[in-house]
């Protein structure tokens, strides 16, 4: 008797052999990267990250591909920094502020008023200090591929304009996760509490905190302006951000693919800086129309002078900051 093969069995045999054949011919280092991002769709960081991963895919003939998960749905920035160090996420855009909590050298950029302006920050980060900070991050499993912009941060609150540090007395501010920022607010006379970005809106609304601090685009996109309308232009921090890849994901790429991915990251940074400049203007105009109250602070010396103990403590806790501060000050 001739044994009949069921078409179902033949079908699945074909499927299995097909899959085997496909896996034999698939490129070896196929990587599907998970990307962490704190910002919403349309934000300059988000648009640039999406452009990065698309360009990286093209430039590696699909050996690298990935997806950006917005709005910190993969976890807070603090958690994401830890996740990247163990390879739990493959790429991300981080603010160097919270990275300082894991990579102490990076704290140099969190010293208030360390940069004269955004152009000075660019010169520093595109030079030897930027390279030194990248190396320190690499030792902790974070491969920084390019620096993104995040303008300058100023305080905002729900109670009153801030013209001098005295105005901060008795007010409680949310800060990013880094003890240095707690010291910064305390040195100005206020109280500070570190908190995840996603919790700030509700905390401002319910009065758990009176204020926070951020740049124009984040003050806008987070809707914090709705619940804290006094924006006082202290411009105390100019924080670079980084487009990074986890050392684990990076090590799986060939040198050629690493080069291509780095190039895609640097191109995306150029794009991000352009989008950033446009967004700052757009957010400022939008929020002025929405009725926020801006306080210009021509003379910031009272805020700057109050930072002496913050610098002293940072250097005492981590002496490697002293030469870095020198180098930044000497960068013309
Ligand atoms: C934004 C920054 C985010 C995050 C946020 C915050 O300006 O781009 O990475 O650090 O501020 O205040 O937590």
From TrEMBL:
Signal peptide residues on this chain, from the entry's feature table: 1-31
InterPro entries reported in the protein's UniProt record: DctP_fam (IPR018389), TRAP_DctP (IPR004682), TRAP_DctP_sf (IPR038404)
Record-linked Pfam families: DctP
GO molecular function: carbohydrate binding
GO annotation, biological process: transmembrane transport
Keywords from the named record: Receptor, Signal
PANTHER family: DICARBOXYLATE-BINDING PERIPLASMIC PROTEIN (PTHR33376:SF2), PTHR33376
Protein name (Swiss-Prot/TrEMBL): Tripartite ATP-independent transporter DctP family solute receptor
């Amino acid at each position: 008797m001739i044994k009949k093969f069921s078409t179902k069995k033949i079908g699945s045999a074909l499927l299995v052999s097909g899959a085997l054949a496909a896996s034999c011919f698939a490129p070896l280092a196929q990587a599907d990267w998970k990307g962490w991002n704190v910002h919403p769709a349309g934000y300059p960081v988000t648009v640039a990250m999406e452009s990065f991963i698309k360009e990286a895919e093209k430039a590696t003939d699909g050996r690298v591909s990935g997806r950006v998960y917005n709005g910190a749905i993969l976890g807070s920035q603090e958690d994401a920094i830890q996740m990247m160090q163990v390879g739990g996420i493959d790429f991300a855009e981080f603010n160097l502020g919270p990275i300082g909590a894991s990579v102490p050298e990076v704290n140099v950029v969190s010293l208030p008023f360390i940069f004269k302006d955004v152009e000075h920050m660019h010169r520093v980060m595109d030079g030897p200090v930027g390279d030194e900070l990248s190396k320190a991050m690499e030792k902790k499993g974070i491969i920084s591929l390019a620096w993104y912009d995040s303008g300058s941060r100023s305080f905002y609150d729900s109670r009153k304009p801030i013209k001098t540090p005295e105005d901060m007395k008795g007010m409680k501010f949310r800060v990013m996760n880094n003890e240095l920022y707690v010291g910064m607010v305390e040195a100005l006379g206020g109280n500070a509490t570190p908190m995840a970005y996603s919790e700030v809106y509700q905390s401002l609304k319910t009065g758990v905190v009176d204020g926070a601090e951020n740049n124009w685009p984040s003050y806008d996109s987070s809707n914090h302006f709705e619940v804290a309308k006094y924006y006082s232009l202290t411009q105390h921090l100019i924080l670079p951000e980084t487009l990074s890849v986890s050392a684990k994901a990076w090590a799986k790429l060939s040198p050629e693919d690493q080069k291509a991915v780095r190039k895609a990251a640097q191109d995306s940074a150029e794009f991000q800086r352009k989008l950033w400049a446009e967004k700052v203007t757009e957010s400022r105009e939008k929020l002025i129309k929405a009725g926020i109250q801006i306080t210009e602070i021509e003379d910031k010396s009272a805020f700057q002078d109050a930072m002496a103990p913050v610098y002293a403590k940072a250097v005492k806790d981590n002496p490697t900051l002293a030469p870095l501060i020198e180098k930044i000050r000497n960068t013309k």
